[in-house]
Write a structure and sequence with these properties.
Distance between the termini of chain A: 23 Å
Bound molecules: zinc ion
Helix content of chain A: 25-40%
Order of helices and strands of chain A: EHEHHEHEHHHHEEEHEHEHHHHEE
Number of strands of chain A: 11
Structural class of chain A: alpha/beta
Shape of chain B: globular
Radius of gyration of chain B: 16 Å
Number of helices of chain A: 14
Number of strands of chain B: 8
Strand content of chain B: 35-45%
Radius of gyration of chain A: 19 Å
Strand content of chain A: 15-25%
Largest interface: A-C, 63 and 63 residues
Number of helices of chain B: 2
Oligomer: heterotetramer
Helix content of chain B: under 10%
Structural class of chain B: mainly beta
Distance between the termini of chain B: 36 Å
Order of helices and strands of chain B: HHEEEEEEEE
């Protein structure tokens, strides 16, 4: 039986940022309408919806997000399912939508992601985000979410000699890339000095090592191979979708300097796509904190373990480098509306593969990868895309 | 805070006295306690186990942006401690300054106030770790 | 291509009730271990996990439930996905697990559901549950969750002449059935008089028309046709899995006395299974309030619209009746740990089909159905099972 | 309550003055307001629309177990009101007793306090409906 391909026929997202004037529903409608227009289809062509959202219960007092989205985009009646895996909720929604088409059951399926984070005060949003880690044995004892990544950073520094300059170079690159991205939250550059002197959050991590609180929504429309060829001249194909888990709490892992779920998901994704890491031209990785990008490029095999800082410092991960990482600006500077992030990563890859990434276009982009992480690494979804 | 108090009360023996579990079949020790041995699975024989409270710093961070209930301790040190008996846990480091701590430093468990929410009056206790001399 | 069947190879659940001494994790381990023992497999045989949970973020301060479950049942590394659709979260987890096996991708997949509701005070649990409806335009104005069902009940009474006695008979039957069910929360009978004189909640609905606040977890293990035949001599097959949606808010619907998502999901499920409602021998339906059972049996076609009260009063829905409904005791008396409910319904159906339902066994049970609803009806999942 | 105030402020025109929307293409009116016409979809032309506030009771219930912030009104009547212009909404019925209300009863919108949380001091306003004589 020949494997059927799954294509991307439409993408749409809101600008990421603080949208005081927009509700969760407004965000969802905004991104959804753009994606449907991009795909050139009618609402009635859509078979099913998957939505990724992390904490609408605590952030806006609303659960039952699948039905809400179907209702507000005018598709009452069709199946709608919310999936959640903390900051990887979007990536998991993409995966379920992909599997829905891949199974042959449906022709056109929507994967959306959204989070409305600024309706509550920042400390309350921080409490919500702490639910991504282990509430009973980490957060209870005062481990904030940045602190979990700081604990990983310390081990990475200790074991590999990674420097704070290297970690900070990730942020410098992210802000530079975001300055070229019209949908990014922070469209300004920062210097290494600014990053290294920014306010302390969880040492060694400072404010400019941390992704922000963001409102935003992102939508991607998937279709069967036949439908994709029928509907678009510039298709993007999903070649792999892999998911893996690790322990919920950091302290239960064998290593803090390697993210094992990412290693497994990456390996499985390469196998599914029938390629190796050498074939990846560029990637969007989950840099909720700058150290996370360094650990991601190592886990995905773009360099040896311990070399992530060096390849960043050397410029190998820049837009014109050997393996461009986070051309969108990443979570750090594009913004991180948690549930939307995994979808927005896929949108950046799709735009690059279509050659529509404007000033931040990667040359000859043929194969791209997304790496979406939940919590401190307990969930990792990896997807691979090609022209 | 949206959390209830029930989950706190339920874990008082663990939080006050570092009582975890051991699997008598494979001798693996668990803290935080697990009632299910990850190795032996259904065949495991789980019993309570009191840890000595001795260990060393595996990693640490100084928290300057504390969550609700931790403001009065700011900045504080959070660490991952490797207990002498094997497992690791997450806890605050106390009775010391950031400069006193390094990876590998020997520490021991002490009983302290963990959280104090002024608005709700909630006070909860548990383990922290302090350097051995 | 011959359609491959999906079988149930193991089921397990905790007793439903107020488990002061058990955490969410304890509940999950309890149900999961029982299901694995029932299936007679090893943990390593499991390919993937889906978990339904409505509001762990507000009820226990914990999100990222998929990873938590994989970790605590000792399956770190495998894919784990939480799905949420309010009170239909369990049914949607079952559906995703079913689709995972059905697609041929996986051999053995776990569907779990859990909710820990008694760690917060009851009013706070009620606020969490209100997130199943429309937070901005229903709950804001004081519409509690029981009130939404009361608004439906009033229209049912007005349009069809349904009586409070008939609605109350649902509760009497549920409690009777639960008295025969060892896992039920309320194992005692109630009289019609007790129901009709119980404390007012949202008139015309009283306390004994409402399902309780419950802690509990339920797990079901699905397998491919080959694996099922290999592993069990008493298989139960899933013949259909259908999902539909309605508007999030009641006031946006054309009718309050009919649940349209259930009508659509039911119709699609019958078509998938190649049967009609006549072929269904018994069903577990979503009686979060007693009026909901009456509307469910109508929507599923077990009687005409407006006749649900009558067939209840006539005893047609009793264990020995024409179409036994909620032999488990239903949400009303078995208990309603929200995310676990959809899975627990499937477990009751599986036990009946295996002939293991003890004192509440339905004679000659060949085909059973589950009907799991989110919120006031904005999501409905229907599954059909056979021997 | 875990909800923020921002979602309340954002809807003040709607909640204070019953301002919904209308699609100028199909003339469907929406309250609660929608910025997306379910019928015309992308081709719809959505504008603001102020409702008259006249309508009738489509369904109602008397709430005896109120949520946080509504305790002081207990018992209160919640209704679904069919507005004269077409759409239905959920609102409290006020200035009347449960016995005064029946399905079909004519009502009109009034501006009232919706919620008052003693502990947090939050007070929010919006529409309720009262019987027309
Ligand atoms: Zn063991
Ligand atoms: Zn229109």
């Amino acid at each position: 039986m020949t494997e059927k391909k799954v294509g991307i026929i439409g993408v749409g997202m809101t600008k990421f940022g603080e949208h005081w004037d927009m509700s969760y529903r407004d965000l969802v409608i905004g991104a959804g309408t753009k994606a449907i227009m991009d795909a050139g289809i009618e609402g009635k062509d859509i078979n099913e919806i998957y939505v990724g959202s992390m904490s609408p219960g605590t952030l806006i007092g609303q659960e039952h997000i699948g039905a809400l989205v179907a209702d507000y985009v005018g598709l009452v009646g069709i199946g709608a399912t919310r999936v959640e895996a903390a900051c990887a909720s979007g990536g998991l929604a993409l995966r379920q939508a992909y599997l829905s088409v891949k199974s042959g059951r449906n022709d056109i399926v929507v994967a959306g992601g959204a989070e409305k984070m600024t309706d509550v005060p920042t400390p309350q949003a921080a409490v919500s985000l702490a639910g991504a880690g282990d509430e009973e044995w980490e957060a209870f004892n005062g481990a904030t979410f940045p602190a979990l990544y700081a604990l990983m950073a310390q081990r990475h520094i200790y074991e590999y000699g990674t420097t704070l300059e290297q970690i900070s170079e990730v942020s410098v690159k992210s802000h530079y890339n975001a300055s070229l991205n019209p949908t990014a939250q922070f469209r300004f550059k920062v210097t290494l000095e600014q990053v290294m002197n920014s306010a302390p959050v969880a040492m060694p991590l400072r404010l400019l090592h941390c992704s922000p609180i963001t409102d935003g929504a992102a939508t991607i429309i998937l279709a069967s191979e036949e439908k994709t060829r029928e509907l678009t001249d510039n298709p993007v194909w999903i070649c792999a979708s892999a998911l893996s888990t690790d322990t919920l709490a950091l302290h239960d892992r064998k290593s803090l300097s390697r993210t094992n779920a990412a290693v497994i998901a990456g390996r499985n994704a390469y196998a599914q796509a029938g390629i190796t890491q050498e074939d990846i031209d560029f990637a969007e990785v989950h840099d909720c904190f700058s150290i996370a990008e360094i650990m991601a490029v190592e886990a995905l095999g773009f360099c040896d373990f311990g070399e992530g800082g060096k390849i960043t410092e050397n410029g190998e991960t820049g837009i014109d480098g050997r393996i461009p990482i986070n051309t969108s600006g990443g979570l750090k500077a594009k913004g991180h509306p948690v549930g939307a992030t995994g979808i927005a990563q896929a949108i950046e890859v799709a735009l690059q593969l279509r050659g529509e990434a404007g000033e931040r276009q990667v040359k000859d982009a043929e194969i791209g990868l997304t790496h979406n992480v939940g919590g401190s690494g307990a969930t990792c979804a990896v997807h691979i895309f090609s022209r | 805070m949206t959390k209830g108090l029930a989950s706190y009360w339920r874990k008082i023996p663990q939080r006050y006295n570092l009582i975890g579990t051991v699997c008598r079949k494979c001798n693996n020790k668990f803290f935080p306690p697990r009632d299910f041995c990850l190795e032996c699975r259904r065949l495991g024989k789980i019993e309570e186990f009191k840890f000595s409270g001795n260990g060393e710093v595996y990693s640490y961070s100084v928290v300057h942006a504390p969550p609700e209930g931790f403001e009065y301790q700011k900045p504080y040190i959070i660490g991952i401690i490797k207990l002498d008996e094997g497992p690791m846990l997450t806890a605050q480091l106390t009775d010391c300054k950031p400069g006193d701590i390094e990876i590998g430093k020997k520490v021991k468990a002490v009983f302290r106030k963990i959280i104090e929410c002024g608005s709700s009056g909630i006070i909860q206790y548990g383990y922290k770790f302090k350097p051995c001399n």
